[in-house]
Amino acid sequence: MALATYWVSVYFEGELLVEPLSVFLNLIGIWLLMRTDQRGWATWAMAGLCFGLSALNRPNVLLVVPVLACWPIILHGLSQWKRGAGFAIVFLAACILVVLPVTIRNFIKGGEAIPIAANGGLNFYVGNNPQSDGMSAVLPGVRADWWGAQQDAKAIAEANAGRTLSAGEVSRFYYRAGVRFILDEPGAAFRLFAHKLRFFWNDVEAPNPYNLYFFTAKYTPIVRYLPLTFGMLVPFAFLGVIFSGKKRLVGQFPLWGFGLAYMASVVMFFVTSRFRLLIVPIVIVYAAFGVVQLLRLIANRKWLHVGGGVAAVVLSWPLLHTEDIAGLTQHPVSYCKVARILTLQREYDKAEDACREAIRIDPELALAHETFGHLELARGNLPAGIKNLREAIRLDADRPVYHTLADALIFDRRFSEASRVLQKGTDALPGQIELKVKLIWLWSTCPDKNVRNGGEALAISDQLIRQYAPIATVLDARAAALAEVGRYDEAIETAEQALKMVDMSKENESLRREMAQRIDTYRSRRPYRQE
Fold first, then answer.
1. pLDDT tens digits, residue range 143-157?
2. Which residue in 491, 475, 473 sits closest to 527, CA to CA?
3. In the CATH hierarchy, which top-level class contains the domain 419-531?
4. pTM for this one?
5. Interacting residues of 507 by C-beta distance below 8 A, sequence separation 6+
6. 8 A C-beta contact, residue 60 and residue 21
């Protein structure tokens, strides 16, 4: 009943996210571990299966599983440690059995034994870097959208390594970067960890991927009238733990053991509302017990104990309500997200209203001007789109919008400006290969001879070839540069090599056709021109 009226749980039930399913699987697993009437092999195996399935949803659950595997040993004690260890092995084996097919699939497809997903290192660095606030899933210098951020993060790692990297290598790069921050700046890392720990137990719901306060206030206001909040539950959960006593707590190990281990697995990375949701049912259980025990103390007129319990709630309350949610209800980044969705739906006037509101709240927010620029380009207002994208770069030189701005300038046949924008972008974001590839294309194929610079284009392509293993986009651009400087035989050979690297799937038919046409152009001893 309590979870059904917990507004955050209701909100996430309406999102296409994995957390509600993870909550269900974890609760079933904990229930199986807590059973006292039957502790056969099947019970431990079923619990392991539940946590394995939960880990497929939320991989950091894997960090909790070894802690829970201690429970059968604790339960059976030293006198029956072999029996307890046997149950622990069954529990772990069942969990591994669920995860193993995914690991095998990753090995077959990518050549690496990645247990579930390869984004752990990136998430670790997001929550452990000098610019991290411990809550925002933001990596400096990458695009705001999920796929763009993944691509840019990979490009940054490869630029540092000087070669192409596999998914596992990218993850390890960011794990090392996060550890390096912790070792190089232990004071800052400790303060960040303490901030994340405090925020984990705070009443505020940290946004990810969307701001809960903003979207519920605007689109589902009834959710905000549901009574329970995290900060309301935690003080009474604390009482519940105290009232449980040592003897009860030993028997409740699956509950609080999961809770503490899962908390550590979140704080290790970064804290958000939906990541924290998995611990809420445990908090509710202890909060309910705390309230019931407090009422029993009142009924039995044990006023000293009642006073201590009430004092604990009153004293802890301010510590759990230290953040102001006013800024979250008027959240400019959320207005930008609304504007992006409305732009995709061609609701341009409404999208403009959202952009203008974001800029009104924070005129210096580069993302707001970037979003406005994308909107103006979508509805064909090229000058306004270019103006807003330039403003985004002025406000934040690391804003990854150079490619879009250059495309708009090229479409407007402002080739010299496009060339300058791309050069500035490659300086600001050296890890973004696509900017360098775009610059090679412009200098090799531009209709304006004053912009073309085949020699420089070829030099950049040579640099990319040295840094990375050959990839189709770089080779295709290099072929155009070779043709521009009159080295047609090499251009043909390079373009054919690029064409062979493009798979034969239906979605690549148009690209393969264009590449074949360029090869024909090189065979006729002519450079390629983009009109």
1. 665 656 777 777 777
2. 491
3. mainly alpha
4. 0.77
5. none
6. no
